[in-house]
Amino acid sequence: MTTNGSAASDPEIIAHRGFSGRYPESTHGSYQAAIAYAEEHDLELGLECDVHFSADDQLICLHDLDLDRTSDVTGPAFARTVDELRQVDFGSWFMPDPRPQDRMITTLVELLDMIAAARNRGVRITLNLETKHPNPRGLEVEDRVAELLTERGWAGADSPIRVITFFPDALVKLREVLPQLRRTFLISDLSRAGDGVLPDGVWIVGPDLERVREDPDWVGRMIAAGNQVHVWTVNTPADVRFCLDLGVTGFTTDFPDVVAETLSREGSDIPQYAPRVVSEDSRPGTTHRRY
């Protein structure tokens, strides 16, 4: 067991598939909106994406392996090239009259370009990059991620990228190909880390909020074992306060504005700003969503 996570840590806000509570998830518009929010408020913000392959060997940012839920077509995403996916509308399921950027799927290369451009102008943006499993090409995803990050000089200990996954075999592969990057073990079953011992080299665990509600003391056991706990998906002020009281230090959310404003009001050590007042009634639904 490592204890790298035992030191106190400022809360981390992680924008789940971009600003996905207000824009169509994983689109250019969703990631651009999250970056713009961080820039406007001088906020350190992590983005989150899920990656797997398109038919033409590019890594795309898309939670589902198929297109049914978040687009105007059906079928597997991996059966289409990126050019073909550009013809698909990924926005209208979520909002009326989406802008062009709200319809457009993002490739991992494009997202890394957005992050690099933002960081070059001083925006404190990082990325939680989930390798999606199962997928038709297995651990080739991790190999390609390593290639892309190494090409950019983002494979070292100072990288703005953290790699995350639910799959232990992927964690082993990531340790092999990206040994200096931080890794998070995502879980939807608390028993997978019930004794506080995580896979080798991992000291951040990412549980489902709904499972944490069932056993709140589990968080304390993880922290006592030297780990950090980053919970998904935390979308309401009440959920932020619940997690803070348990010692959670990472908040994956569809609404980074809600989490940032709540942490600010609670006096957590994040950049302070005048909260933008948004009535609860005016917000889109803040229901829990799967990682």
UniProtKB/TrEMBL annotation:
Occurrences of domain GP-PDE (ranges): 11-263
Source superkingdom: Bacteria
GO biological process: lipid metabolic process
UniProt cross-references to Gene3D superfamilies, sorted A to Z: Phosphatidylinositol (PI) phosphodiesterase
SUPFAM superfamilies per record: PLC-like phosphodiesterases
Pfam families for the chain: GDPD
Region (Disordered), start-end ranges: 270-291
Name of this chain's protein: Glycerophosphoryl diester phosphodiesterase
